[in-house]
């Protein structure tokens, strides 16, 4: 794509960002739960729980996340560090959300607790898997996922990018925790935004094709890399900058995907 077209496209995306990257447009979105936690060590746990359950209809996602967070009180970190395992099992054994059972959630929370105990925080664990030579978060994310999973059965709540998965929910988790603006609350400093990967859902996949960043139909890590590289041409320091504003079209009840197509069309 010639530089002149890139320049025009970036102006269009900046217009969309300025108009739609607003906290007033967040609801309904599991991201809204993160705003309730000022302590980053609580927020990172909430973010991992909320992102892990971020599949299906958004109204049901919100109900599922709320059910998991309710027993954990004001400080999920304190809950995980202090709660007796038997009591935790009792709180979540009846949980059910689509493919996720109470057993999966209990194992996920147990994995989080073990990582926090061993490394001090989820961020410290992720940083342990980081290398200054990595061009993306994929190696560190793979390490992080393996530490959470261990020998536990967390079902499909977290996917390993080393196996080719698009890891949409993990990429979403990282966007929330690394970026900081009107929408993303941030809190992590161990990862530069330049290494983030696009959370590839149906809406971003459609946007990526509209923008000419990919022709791929399969939503896998190869497609994630192609679309992320497209955005990186325009915004190398923050390739996922436009994710929230672009994916509002099709998610927010008052915003239609066809409106986005009209806004970003390149003649």
Main attributes?
267 residues, mainly alpha, 2 domains, two-stranded antiparallel ribbon, 13 helices
In short:
This protein is mainly alpha-helical and 267 residues long.
Notes on the structure:
Pfam families: DUF2400 (PF09674). 53% of the residues lie in helices and 1% in strands. It contains 13 helices and two strands; from the N terminus they run αααααββαααααααα. A hairpin with a 2-residue loop joins strand 1 (96-97) and strand 2 (100-101). Helix 2 (40-52) runs antiparallel to helix 9 (168-178).
* Radius of gyration using CA atoms only: 18 Å
Shape: globular
User: Looking across the biggest beta sheet, what order are the strands in?
Assistant: 1-2
Number of spatially distinct domains: 2
**Overall average pLDDT:** 90
Report the portion of residues in β strands: under 5%
- The arrangement of helices and strands along the chain is HHHHHEEHHHHHHHH
Q: Which secondary-structure class do the elements indicate? A: mainly alpha
Number of helices: 13
Distance from N terminus to C terminus (CA atoms, Å) equals 13 Å
Helix content bin: 40-55%
Report low-confidence residues grouped into runs of 5 or more: none
The largest pleated sheet is described as: 2 strands, antiparallel
């Amino acid at each position: 794509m010639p530089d002149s077209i890139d320049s025009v496209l970036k102006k269009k995306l900046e217009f969309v960002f300025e108009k739609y990257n607003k906290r007033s447009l967040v609801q309904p979105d599991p991201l809204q739960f993160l705003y309730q936690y000022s302590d980053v060590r609580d927020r990172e746990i909430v973010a991992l729980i909320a992102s892990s359950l971020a599949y299906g209809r958004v109204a049901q996602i919100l109900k599922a996340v709320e059910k998991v967070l309710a027993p954990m009180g004001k400080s999920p970190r304190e809950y995980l560090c202090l709660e007796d395992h038997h009591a935790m099992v009792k709180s979540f054994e009846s949980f059910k959300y689509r493919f996720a059972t109470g057993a999966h959630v209990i194992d996920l929370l147990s994995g989080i607790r073990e990582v926090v105990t061993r490394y001090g925080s989820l961020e410290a664990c992720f940083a342990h898997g980081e290398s200054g030579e990595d061009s993306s978060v994929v190696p560190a994310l793979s390490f992080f996922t393996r530490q959470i999973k261990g020998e536990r059965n967390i079902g499909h709540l977290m996917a390993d990018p080393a196996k080719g998965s698009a890891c949409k929910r993990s990429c979403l988790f990282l966007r929330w925790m690394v970026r900081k603006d009107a929408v993303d609350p941030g809190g992590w400093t161990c990862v530069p935004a330049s290494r983030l990967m696009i959370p590839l859902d149906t809406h971003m996949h459609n946007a990526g094709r509209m923008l000419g960043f990919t022709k791929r139909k399969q939503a896998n890590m190869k497609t994630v890399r192609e679309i992320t590289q497209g955005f990186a041409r325009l915004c190398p320091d923050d390739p996922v900058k436009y994710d929230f504003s672009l994916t509002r079209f099709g998610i927010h009840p008052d915003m239609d995907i066809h409106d986005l197509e009209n806004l970003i069309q390149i003649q």
